[in-house]
Each structure stands twice: as structure tokens, then as C-alpha cells.
Amino acid sequence: MILGARLRQLREARRITGGEAGEEIRASHSKISRLEMGRTGFKTKDVEELLNLYGVTDDGERATLLALAKQSTSLGWWHIYHDIVPVWLNVYLGLEQAAVLIRSYELQFVPGLLQTPGYARAVVHLVEDDPEVLERRLELRLARQWVLRRDAPPRLWVVIDEAALRRPVGGSGEMRRQLAYLLEMSELPHVTIQVMPFASGGHAGLGGSVTVLRPPGDELPDVVYLEQLTGGVYPDKHAEIEHYQHVMNRVVVDATPPDRSRDMMLRMLREV
To answer: Which terminus of the chain has a lower count of CB atoms within 10 Å, N or C?
Structure first.
């Protein structure tokens, strides 16, 4: 998706049609459309030829885009969960593992990367009754969290609505463990947690949860992810991406600062 979006930007900037780009790599206009929408993987040779056609000479940008082309056809570690991972989630997992910055606002639940096993189990159980599938989904959710423990982890900056922290998902005991874990994770240098208090009233994030992921390199655009009940949406128009970036910026400003957010979570922990 990231590579396709960038190639579309480069093509449009040079006023080259999809048909002309297709001829360059001996393909149809529809294939160029599928490539640019992230619906299929890329051959490195095709990307090299398109970059030549689009006049991309910067070594750094070429290296980044060619690396993405190679990654687009490789299987991630989550492939072993293919039986429970739909296409829209497979895309997100790849983005999450590759991102250098993940920003999100969560309205209903603690973000998946910061959930305790007990809290995660309770959340998954809300939509899954099959014990075997539940365990598989839980295993996948917890495996995702290793991205924050690896060498060179992404920067994670989340704003959690007070409603999510007041809702005792999994019971009061599990919520105490979850709040304690959030406090622990907030001490990591690459993790920032803010609370959006009820006292803020109306704010830019009330429309729903949103995640903005920043891929590696300075040449590629942010990716916006909107999770829905039965799927995920990736707005890809420039104006839409800018809108959600603005929403995240507003939410960060309106939320309680990180140090005072820790104080809020400590008070909630004592109250549970």
C-alpha cells in the first residue's frame, strides 16, 4: 500500500497515465491500478523500470522503494495465523511491524499493543466464542506486542479516552493489572501515553478511534487506519490523510499531558 501510493504520486507528478506506465513494464492499465492500490505484490524489476520512467534519481528514495518492493512479496511472521487473519488485518500487521512511529486515539479499549493478557482475552471474547479460535487470536495479539521490546522499536504515542480506562473489561481485578501495566509501559522512553479526560468535553477524536502509522524513510506518506466492527479502512487520498493527521494533532493537544496522565491513571488504579 505504501509503495503503491508513492508510485501513484510519482506517476501523477510526471503526468504519466496508467496505460503509459503499464506499457513500460509490459502490463495492462488495470495491473498498474492494482499495484498502486496495494492489491498485489511488486517485482523488483518492474519497480526499477517505473522509477526510471518517473525520473527518480535520488539514491535514498530508490533504495527505500526497492526495499519495500522486496518486502511486498515476503511473508511476515504472522503468516502462521493466516487462518484467522483477514486481508485487511494482514495489511495492518505489516504496517505496524514496519512503522517507525505509531500514533493512535482509542475511544473504547486500551490499545492492543498495551493490553495485558487477561484484558486482551476479555476483549477478544467479546467477538469470539470458539475456544480454539479465541486462543489463536489472543496469541497473535500478544505476539504483536514484541515490536515494542525489539531493538530499535517504533515510537508509540497513544491517547486513551477516560471511558476506556473506566470500563472494567475483564473485571475490576484485571483492570487494576491493566492500569498498572500502562503505568509500567509509560516509563519506556519510546512510549508516550496520554488520557483524554471527560472534562475535555467535545474534541476532534469523538468520531471514533484512529491510528496513524509512519513508514521508514522521509519519502513515504503516513498511513491512516480506521478499525470498524467487521474490517478496517485505509483512507489514501492526500486530503483524507491530512485530515486525520490534524485530528491526531488536536487530540494530543486537548488530552492531559503525559506526566499528569500518569497521575490520573494512578488515581484510577486506587479507585478500582
So the answer is: C
CATH class of domain segment(s) 77-271: alpha beta
Nearest to 194 by CA among 184, 186, 202: 186
Tell me the one-letter amino acid at 166: R
- Amino acid identity for residue 32 in this structure: I
Question: At the fourth CATH level, which superfamily is domain 2-71?
Answer: lambda repressor-like DNA-binding domains (1.10.260.40)
At residue 148, the pLDDT reads 96
Tell me the residue type at 98: A
Model pLDDT, residue 39? 67
Residues 157, 261: contact at Cβ < 8 Å?
no
> What pTM did the predictor assign?
0.80
C-alpha cell belonging to residue 133: 479460535
Q: What is the dihedral of CA 160, 165, 169, 174, to 10 degrees?
A: 110
Q: How far apart are CA 37 and CA 3, in angstroms?
A: 9
- The answer to whether the beta carbons of residues 6 and 35 sit under 8 Å apart is no
- 232: phi then psi, degrees, rounded to nearest 5: -135, 150
What is the edge-to-edge ordering of all strands in the sheet holding 155-161?
A: 191-196, 155-161, 101-106, 210-214, 223-228, 231-233
pLDDT of residue 230: 67
